[in-house]
């Protein structure tokens, strides 16, 4: 009984956090990002009217910085709350996120899906998205690779998701004693709360695989 109550409390906390994250993400997308885009357009206009080459180059540099900032804010907005998740589904949401991820980190992400995609509850979709997101961020931080892939395998009662890279890998025992273990534990706990499972395997110089198994119903 105490364990069930603890799970419900943890689930409620995560749901509350997601609602607040959604609010911040919408503010970033609908207000801040739009303002940045307007500023970039203005800088491009100013650059076109400047005759002094030094000032023209400076305005161009500032416009380029603004463009990079817009990309980063867009990625942050999607990281916080992917709008496509509830409208187009998990695979489309990961494809959209992967494109922004590639533009930001320079790591190409191939997304493949086999079988017929099934409708997941909002909680399960978000849990899977968050774990995929965490796995990709870890690849950018630690894998030292320029390529990774996400494979969805849809069955009748469950979906399997594998996030794979061919980077430098790591010693699992060593990592479990470090701060990175907290992130791995968080991924597993998030999936456990929606009835799923998360496994991780890695080998030095051969890469890492994060595997998600999630019941559809």
Strand and helix map with partners:
Elements: H1 2-49, H2 53-80, H3 84-88, H4 90-105, E1 108-114, H5 122-143, E2 147-154, E3 158-165, H6 172-176, H7 180-192, E4 197-203, E5 207-215
Parallel strand pairs: 1-2
Antiparallel strand pairs: 2-3, 3-5, 4-5
Helix pairs in contact: 1-2, 2-4, 4-5, 5-7
GO molecular function: ATP binding; protein histidine kinase activity
Domain Histidine kinase: 27-217
Organism: Thalassobacillus cyri
Explain this structure to me?
The chain has 2 domains: 2-80; 84-215, Heat Shock Protein 90 (2-Layer Sandwich), CATH 3.30.565.10. The longest helix is centred in the first third of the chain and has 48 residues, at 2-49. Helix content is 63%, strand content 18%. It contains 7 helices and 5 strands; from the N terminus they run ααααβαββααββ. The model has no long low-confidence stretch (mean pLDDT 83). α1 runs antiparallel to α2 (53-80), α2 (53-80) packs antiparallel against α4 (90-105) and α4 runs parallel beside α5. It has a 5-stranded mixed beta sheet. β1 (108-114), α5 and β2 form a beta-alpha-beta unit. With 217 residues, the chain is of the alpha+beta class. The protein is globular and about 65 Å long.
């Amino acid at each position: 009984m105490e364990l069930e109550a603890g799970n419900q409390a943890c689930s409620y906390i995560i749901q509350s956090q997601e609602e607040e994250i959604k609010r911040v993400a919408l503010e970033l997308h609908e207000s801040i990002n739009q303002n940045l885009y307007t500023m970039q357009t203005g800088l491009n206009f100013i650059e076109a009217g400047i005759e002094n080459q030094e000032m023209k180059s400076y305005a161009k540099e500032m416009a380029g910085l603004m463009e990079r900032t817009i990309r980063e804010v867009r990625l942050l907005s999607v990281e916080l709350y992917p709008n496509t998740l509830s409208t187009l589904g998990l695979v489309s949401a990961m494809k959209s996120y992967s494109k922004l991820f590639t533009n930001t980190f320079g790591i190409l992400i191939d997304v493949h899906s086999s079988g017929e995609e099934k409708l997941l509850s909002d909680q399960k979709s978000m849990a899977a998205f968050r774990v995929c997101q965490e796995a990709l961020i870890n690849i950018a931080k630690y894998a030292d690779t320029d390529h990774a892939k996400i494979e969805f395998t849809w069955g009748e009662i469950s979906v399997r998701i594998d996030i794979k890279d061919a980077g430098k890998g790591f010693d699992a025992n060593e990592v479990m004693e470090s701060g990175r273990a907290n992130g791995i534990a968080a991924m597993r706990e998030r999936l456990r709360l929606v009835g799923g499972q998360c496994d991780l395997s890695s080998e030095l110089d051969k890469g890492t695989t994060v595997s998600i198994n999630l019941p559809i119903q």
